[in-house]
Amino acid sequence: MIRVLIADDHAVVRQGLRTFLELQEDIEVVGEAADGEAALRAAAELEPDVVLMDLVMPVLDGVAAIEGLRARGSTARVIVLTSFLDEDKVLPAVRAGAAGYLLKDVAPAELVGAIRTVDRGEALLHPAVAARVLQELTADAGRAERHDALTAREREVLALVARGRANKAIAFELGVAEKTVKTHVGNILAKLGLSDRTQAALYAVREGLA
Predict the structure, then answer these.
(1) pLDDT tens across 169-209, in order?
(2) How much is the CA Rg of the chain, to the nearest whole Å?
């Protein structure tokens, strides 16, 4: 039997999922939770094989709950079941360790298939989610390549730009001419495909280069 925990803040959703899943011979719904914190407690107590996790819940959201499961050593496989396909929801959930990501309009048979799939140790993502993840991986690779294109000195200059230093202050701190700093800044913008110092500063902070 595949032991399933349902975490969703809407009682009607939990009841609907329970009613359908309990018709399956190989699936047992072992518990429900109305928020992320309750889901963590239930997972520790019930040791489910699969958790169906909503993302938007009170007390503790779905992404934080997934991270909590991993931090506590839970071996439960998590399927995100949500109405959201926004990038700010999808990517954090996948990064947190979700084995599956499905929308709530999924066909019941597909949901059952997903539960069986992730229980076997495989992953299953909604096609649109898979496309988003692939785009992010490609973007990560591109950013890494651009990082590698910077020289050690250019990285130093970029870090100082991110701290709000003007060219003159950077030149003084590094012991070089202000003209040299201007050249470095120009090279940094060209290599990273950015248009100005503000973009460079934001890029450095976002990518952990500052």
Answers:
(1) 899 999 999 999 999 998 888 888 777 787 788 778 777 77
(2) 23
β-pairing, 77-82 with 27-33?
unpaired
Average pLDDT over residues 89-102: 82
Distance (Å) of CA 70 to CA 47, 78, 91, 103, 197? 13, 10, 17, 23, 39
Q: What share of the chain is helix, strand, coil (3-state, %, to 5)?
A: 60, 15, 30
Least confident of 3-7, 158-162, 165-169, 200-204: 200-204
When pLDDT is averaged across residues 131-135 and rounded to a whole number, the result is 60
Question: Is 10:35 a contact under the CB 8 Å cutoff?
Answer: no
Q: How many CA atoms lie within 13 A of 127 on its CB side?
A: 2
Give the CA diameter of the chain.
75
